Amino acid sequence: MNNPQSWEARADEYSLYGFTDLPSVHERGAVVLTHGEGPYVFDVNGKRYLDANSGLWNMVAGFDHKGLADAAKAQYDRFPGYHAFFGRMSDQTVMLSEKLVDVSPFDHGRVFYTNSGSEANDTMVKMLWFLHASEGNPKRRKILTRWNAYHGVTVVSASMTGKPYNEVFGLPMEGFLHLTCPHYWRFGEPGETEEQFVARLARELEETIEREGADTIAGFFAEPVMGAGGVIPPAKGYFQAIQPILKKHGIPLISDEVICGFGRTGNTWGCQTYGFTPDAIISSKNLTAGLFPMGAVILGPDLADRMQAAAEKIEEFPHGFTASGHPVGCAIALKAIDVVMNEGLADNVKRLAPRLEAGLRAIMERSEHIGELRGIGFMWALEAVKDKATKTPFDGSLSVSERIANTCTDLGLICRPLGQSIVLCPPFILTEAQMDEMFEKLEQALNKVF
Ligand code: PLP
């Protein structure tokens, strides 16, 4: 960082970093990347990192998949322009919508495109407001989510997100209500069984609906496994307990599959892994294997029909983004779905998930300060605690997880600190040897920090 002309200094001078611990990056310098090979990325100094973060959960096919780059190039050559509105749509968009409904858990549905997961959640909220109003229920506007949920950064999706850092923006907005996070290990009360914990959360939902009035609630959004909240799989039976309550009150359940979708949990959708069928799915990230910014709202049969009827009523759904359904993004997504589902990537997740879990469990057992391992498929978190028996977290301004992640970076492994946890969500192409490299570097880092 002493050389004013260095890449690190230039990054520090001209960029406003988001979601970055600033004292740490000022001291260490940004890692400026130039290229990638498989699950590895390389910085300007030629240093290689194994990216156990898959970019940001999304580079599931690695950083140099030729088939995906070729699909992008072919579509840029053929028709890079887009026509998303006014009755025009590219052939790629038509094909992708068909494909998405085909691979969804729905036997009939409709798709709407955005540029990101945040926008897809915003779009879904507007759809719910639009259709409830059209059906004569304009008061149905409140949105239910959970503490620790992550749904994005736009004003609406940040209001849905259940993270205290949004208080600096004066969020959540009114009408966005957060229920208890279904993390039994952390939020279960002393002596409470997992079953009792789930029953308590179901009661809380029922009481919230009764207190607020079902006729004021537009929808309930949930990630099958909370990702940015620290990889939190739901307590056993959670969705089975809450879905009948939502159904009884006519509240749509929206599955935010921005992380879980397309293979991360070992199945195409996280909702399949956890045995529930939502009313709509929010997709992004893996949708294009990280090669194009794109999100999609996939409506199941009931919402698809109701939204279509609501739009027909006023002859228009007045919403959309300039690049909605961009043909290059759609061509990449069509290829990405094929790559993940038919080139062995989803199978690799299924095959290697038990090995990944076993390796991380062994690390946890050898460590004095890893209190919990949680996850599924290719998404896992190790939670650091000062005391395993009492689950007491560490304190200090630079969190212990931040220190572990920085040490991993020094050792050539990228993983993500989230709260008190270290998150590992490698690309789906990871081999056994690369997994062993990840275990080795992670354990080395833990030994240095603790
Ligand atoms: N929903 C979930 C579950 C996410 O994990 C994310 C991003 O990490 C989003 C929504 C927001 O997506 P984006 O960052 O593309 O706006």
UniProtKB/TrEMBL annotation:
SUPFAM superfamilies assigned: PLP-dependent transferases
Taxonomy, superkingdom: Bacteria
Residue ranges that the Swiss-Prot or TrEMBL entry lists as coiled coil: none
The keyword Endoplasmic reticulum belongs to this UniProt entry's keyword annotation: no
Name listed for the protein in its UniProt record: Aspartate aminotransferase family protein
Family: Belongs to the class-III pyridoxal-phosphate-dependent aminotransferase family.
Cofactor or coenzyme needed: pyridoxal 5'-phosphate
